[in-house]
Structures are given as structure tokens and as C-alpha cells.
């Protein structure tokens, strides 16, 4: 599983960070970072929740 961020769509609202702060972080510069782009499979449900929480559809999961 790989988390993909489309930076052109991301507004750095932090919805994903609120769901999974160990994977996503909005930095001091206001830009979103994916801290762990390949989280373990046992976190799939949490990653799906984070992707669904994104109001700009900037996140996706690739297998």
C-alpha cells in the first residue's frame, strides 16, 4: 500500500492529519507532508478514512 498526494489539489487543511497524525503532517510552512508513504497493511482502514476525509480529493491509495 502506498499513499499518494496530489500537491496540485492539496489545500493543507489537515483533515488527514487529524485522522492519522503519524502519517500526515501540515508543517510550519503550511505544506502537507506524507511522513510515511508506505504504512503497514494493518493500517489500511485508517488510511482509507484519512483519504476519505480529504475535501479536495488530493490523497489516494495505490496497491
Automatic annotation (TrEMBL):
GO terms for molecular function: electron transfer activity; iron ion binding; iron-sulfur cluster binding. SUPFAM superfamilies: 4Fe-4S ferredoxins (SSF54862). Keywords: Electron transport, Iron, Iron-sulfur, Metal-binding, Transport. InterPro entries: 3Fe4S_ferredoxin, 4Fe4S_Fe-S-bd, Fe-S_cluster_ET. Residues 1-29 form the 4Fe-4S ferredoxin-type domain. This is Unannotated protein. The lineage of its organism: unclassified sequences, metagenomes, ecological metagenomes.
Amino acid at each position: 500500500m502506498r499513499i499518494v498526494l496530489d500537491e496540485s489539489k492539496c489545500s493543507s487543511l489537515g483533515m488527514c492529519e487529524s485522522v492519522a497524525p503519524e502519517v500526515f503532517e501540515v508543517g510550519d510552512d503550511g505544506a502537507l507532508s506524507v511522513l510515511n508513504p508506505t504504512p503497514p497493511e494493518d493500517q489500511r482502514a485508517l488510511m482509507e478514512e484519512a483519504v476519505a476525509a480529504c475535501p479536495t480529493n488530493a490523497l489516494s491509495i495505490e496497491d
